[in-house]
Design brief:
The chain contains twelve helices and 13 strands. With 317 residues, the chain is an alpha/beta fold. The longest helix is centred in the C-terminal third of the chain and has 21 residues.
Length: 317
C-alpha cells in the first residue's frame, strides 16, 4: 500500500477534523495519504435534520464510497453515524474524544439564563430544542440548517439572538477563543451520544499491515468505551438523531459512569438514569464489556421510567 485514501465530507469542519486523522495515519504508516471528498445527501438537502431522519444522512454516501473501493477509510462524526452495523463495514478506530459539550453563541454577551424573554435561538437538533424548552420555555426556538459560519452569521446579522453548537466543532475550526461562547456543562445539559468523537470506518476483514498499525495507534480505549456506552443506549431505545436523547459516559477512578436522559419534544417531561460499572482492567475489551453492561441497565431504567410514552422512540414496552 503506497497511498492510503481517506474519505470525508467536503465541509470545512469535516475537512478540518479529517486532516488530523490524515496527519496521524501518515505519521504511523509512513506513506502518502490522499483525501477523497464525498458529497452526502445531508450536505445537499435543505430540509431539517429531523425531517430527513437525522441519523445516516451524512454517512450513506461515505459508506458507499468505501464499499466501492473509492477510499480505504472514511472519517465520520460519531454522533452522525447510525448505531446499527453496516454490512461489510466496521469501526476500525475511535480516536481520543474532543470536548463533548454544547456551547451557546449569543449576541451582546448574553448567556442562556440572561437572554431576554422571547429571544430567538437557533438549532437543528431535536435534543437541543427539548433542552431549550425545558430550561427556558419563554424562548423562541428556530429550526436552522447550514454550516457553522452560516449559523454564527445569523447571530451577527441580528436574525437570531443565539445559536447552540458543539464545542468540538468550534474547537476544530479554531473559533472558540474568538467567539467567547457559554459552555453548557454536561451534568445539566447532556449532549448527543458520541458528540465530540470521530469514528474511523473501514471495510470488514484484516486491513493492510500499515493501515492496521495506523488504526491501532489512533484508537483510544476510554473513548471507544464511553462512546459505546452512549450509543448503545440509542440502539437499545431504537432512537436516532430525531429523538431527544442526551448521554454522557466517563471513565474515572477505575469506574465507567453513564448518565442518559430522554426528553419529550416540548421539554415538559424527561427521565434520567445513571449507573456505573467496574471494568476488569483498562484494556479496550474490558472497558467495552463494562460499557455494554452499564448501557443495558440505563436503558432498562429509561424505558421503565416511561421514556417510550413521551419521546419519539420505536420501542414498544
Amino acid at each position: 500500500m503506497t497511498v492510503i485514501r481517506v474519505g470525508t465530507r467536503a465541509s470545512a469542519l469535516a475537512l478540518a477534523q479529517t486532516q488530523t486523522i490524515v496527519n496521524r495515519i501518515a505519521a504511523s504508516a509512513g506513506v502518502e495519504v490522499e483525501v477523497v471528498r464525498v458529497t452526502t445527501h445531508g450536505d445537499t438537502s435543505t430540509e431539517s435534520l429531523s425531517s430527513l431522519g437525522g441519523t445516516g444522512v451524512f454517512a450513506s454516501a461515505l459508506r458507499e464510497a468505501l464499499l466501492n473501493d473509492e477510499c480505504d477509510v472514511v472519517v465520520h462524526s460519531f454522533k452522525d453515524l447510525p448505531t446499527e452495523p453496516h454490512q461489510g463495514l466496521r469501526i476500525g478506530a475511535v480516536p481520543k474524544r474532543a470536548d463533548a459539550r454544547d456551547v451557546l453563541v449569543a449576541r451582546a454577551g448574553f448567556t442562556l439564563d440572561t437572554l431576554p424573554e422571547g429571544a430567538r435561538v437557533g438549532t437543528g437538533s431535536p435534543r437541543r430544542v427539548a433542552q431549550l424548552r425545558e430550561r427556558r420555555p419563554d424562548l423562541t426556538v428556530v429550526d436552522i440548517r447550514g454550516n457553522i459560519d452560516t449559523r454564527i452569521g445569523r447571530v451577527a446579522e441580528g436574525d437570531l439572538d443565539a445559536v447552540v453548537l458543539a464545542a468540538a466543532g468550534l474547537g476544530r475550526l479554531g473559533r472558540l477563543d474568538s467567539l467567547g461562547p457559554e459552555f453548557l456543562e454536561l451534568s445539566a445539559w447532556p449532549s448527543a451520544p458520541g458528540q465530540g468523537a470521530l469514528a474511523i470506518e473501514v471495510r470488514d476483514g484484516k486491513p493492510e499491515r500499515l493501515l492496521g498499525l495506523a488504526l491501532a495507534a489512533m484508537n483510544h480505549a476510554s473513548t471507544q468505551a464511553t462512546t459505546t456506552a452512549e450509543r448503545t443506549v440509542l440502539a437499545r431505545l431504537e432512537a436516532g438523531c430525531a429523538a431527544p436523547v442526551g448521554a454522557t459516559a466517563v471513565v474515572d477512578d477505575g469506574l465507567l459512569f453513564l448518565t442518559a436522559t430522554v426528553y419529550s419534544p416540548d421539554g415538559s417531561r424527561k427521565v434520567t438514569s445513571s449507573h456505573a460499572a467496574t471494568p476488569d482492567s483498562h484494556s479496550a475489551p474490558h472497558l467495552v464489556e463494562a460499557a455494554l453492561d452499564v448501557a443495558e441497565r440505563v436503558s432498562i431504567d429509561l424505558l421503565a421510567g416511561g421514556a417510550a410514552e413521551f419521546a419519539p422512540l420505536k420501542v414498544t414496552t
